[in-house]
Amino acid sequence: MIPMRIFIGIKLAAEAKERISEELQPFRKAGTPMRWTGRDNIHLTLKFIGEAADPLAAKVGAALQADFPAMAPFRLRLTGFGKFPAGDDLHVFWAGVEVSPELRALFAGVEDALAPLGIARETRPFHPHITLGRNKAPFNFKSFFALLAEKNSVFLGEWPVSAFQLFSSHLTPAGPEYAILKEIPLVQS
Description:
Helices cover 28% and strands 38% of the residues. The chain has 189 residues and is of the alpha+beta class.
C-alpha cells in the first residue's frame, strides 16, 4: 500500500478560481521565485491530516459522512491577499477567507468527527486562507509587498458552499496532484 497525503477542504467554484486568477496576474508578473498553486488546485483547506494509507482514508471518509452534524449550506466570502510570516520574509502567499459562524461550525464539525479516529485536534487558532503560492528562496520582495499593500482588502467574491471534500494529494516533480476521495454534502436538519 502506497501512503498518500489527505486533507479536508472546500473545492472552490469555477468562478471563484477565475476571479482569484485574474487578481493574481500583477503578483505573478512581479518576478518572484514563488512556486504558484495551479488554478485547478486552488481550494480552502480545513484540516490537513498528512500521510495516510487507504484504510485510514476510508475511515476518515466514513466518519465525515456518518458523524458530521447537520448543517445548512452557507456562503463563503473571499477578501484580500496576505502572507505568512509577518515582517520582511514570505513563505506562504494567500487569499483571505472571511470567518463566518457557519465556517467556524464546519471546522469544529470536522474536528469533532475526526477526534474518535485519533486524529489530533488543531492547536493553532483557526485562520482560514487559500494558499496561492509558496516561497523558500531569499528574495527582495519590496515590489511584491507594495502590490500586497494595494490589494490587501480587494473583494474577491462570495460563493455558495453546499459540500466539503476529503482530498488526496500525491506529490510529483511538477507539483501536487489533488483528487477528491469523497464529497460530503451539507444538509439541513
